[in-house]
Amino acid sequence: MRPKCLSRKIYLIPIILLAVILIGCSGVDFGDSDFNSWSYRLLSPDEKSDKNYSGNLKPGTYPVDLLFSDFYLALGGEATLGPVISPVSTSEGQTKQFTEAGLMIFDPSVAKSSRFALAPLGLELGVGEGELLGKAYRTGRIINGHLVIAEFLEEYERLGGARFVGRPISEAYYNPEKDRVEQYFENLGFYRLDAESKIRMMPYGAYACDKNCRNQEPLAGIPIRQPILPEPFLKKTLALGLPFVGKPLTGFHFAPDGRYEVIFENLVLVADHETPNEVYVRPIAESIGAHTQNPTYPQNSSLSIFYEIEGGLGYNIPIYFNEYLDLYGGMQVAGEPISEVFSHEAGVYRQCFTNLCLQFNLNLEGEQRLRPIPLGTEYKAVNYESVRNFEASQELDHLDLKVWEKDTFVSSKGLQEIQVALVEDGKPLVNYELVLIVTMPDGSQRRANFQPSDENGRTSIKLAPIEAPSGTLIAYKVCLFWMDEEPRCAGDNYLIWNSE
User: Which domain, by its residues, includes 477?
Assistant: First the structure.
């Protein structure tokens, strides 16, 4: 229905007082001087120099799904994993999406910190061995019976070790056909060209996804964390303006209902898969519990208009609210009203529509008085719960780290074995790499790396004999150094005892 002004009997309601106040604020400037500078910040350095930038995805590539966006960026984004080469899919209770270098997986059935992972495509591809490298390459660390050479070890550890890269499944070797050094792991494959020092990823994902997913050579640009909006989302965003939509909270992604989506502070833009060039505002207000009221009768006031819903009933909208919305597309953007003006707190008045809510705050000055409220923030919190958030999943709130030694005491010439069990919420943590720190009799410390934990969450390491007199107590601790958190450690001690 079209809004219409009515002139009937005057009703004494708070909306008239509010409208009088609003009329006195008609000098508010809703300019968009910062729109262009904001859109400029959305672009990568290369794209900033391209005045004809359209934001379109390259052929054969897809936006990273919102579920995987933080995980993808944490591992280095496109510079490490290559572009995303498939839409998101679900099978056997897992959500999956291919990148050129691997397959990202979300599995809600495993321990929280293990829900985000890369699939073991290396095992499925059945990689073989090549010509072993010379002695110059024989430094690094033995993992799973294979030497991870020093130049690959740094990248392996940066990406989270066996937790995300997987265990090595081959030795490092030289591939003369491609003039490069290669090493294969369960989830990713590393290589370095002769003429470069940069470590690159094998296209596991492209081959596993078959030729329909294969794309061009990986891009060398470094991704930035700020979202880059493709057309027509960028055009729609610039038309509405940053003060109206608020800051972007996500990049371009697939929503659970299959639509393309970008979430902003104040509203959500979407496009249907069948008509991707038609961007509109998602109706989110009622779904996240915004204030609603039953339709009412019109007010006979020159300070408001009446929007009829059905049968002569509808909602009264202050003229100032309506003029503000007209600057940004009117009811086509805001949606139909779902409430009258109501007092949120002292001096603060709100009115909600199907797509957004407006707030007029007497305690503020100038253009800050009338603004949309951050419904997009609430929508993101409601619809993308922390269990599906990568960073939240890595918080080891319920980690159970148990350590023990095989023998209560050993001689100064005997071997000791330290054993570990790693569990979260009763579920074993697989492929986690721990560090053993032993305090020697002279007070110095020695460190050693455990092999990645097995399918039962267990691992162990043998200690070389420690020369010390009988009665010497050897203290040790086992630590998990994880993401940016403080290390999680558990310790114990054992006795050196030499029998006469």
Answer: 399-496
Asked if 199 and 300 sit in the same domain, the reply is no
Show the 3-state SS of 374-394. Answer: CHHHHHHHHHCCHHHCHHHHC
Q: Return the pLDDT at 483.
A: 64
Q: What residues contact residue 304 under an 8 Å CB cut-off, 6+ apart?
A: 15, 16, 19, 316, 317, 318, 319
Report d(CA 278, CA 91) in Å as an integer: 30
Read off the CATH number of the domain in which 418 is found: 2.60.40.10
Please give the tally of structural domains in the chain.
3
| 420 & 346 share domain | no
Give the mean pLDDT of the chain.
81
Token pair, residue 315, equals: 């909602």
* pLDDT at 355 (0 to 100): 97
The 10s digit of each residue's pLDDT in 305-346 is 999 999 999 999 999 999 999 999 999 999 999 999 999 889
At a CB cut-off of 8 Å and minimum separation 6, what does 245 contact?
237, 264, 265, 266, 267, 269, 372, 376
Find, among 433, 429, 437, the residue nearest to 452 by Cα: 433
What is the reported pTM? Answer: 0.58
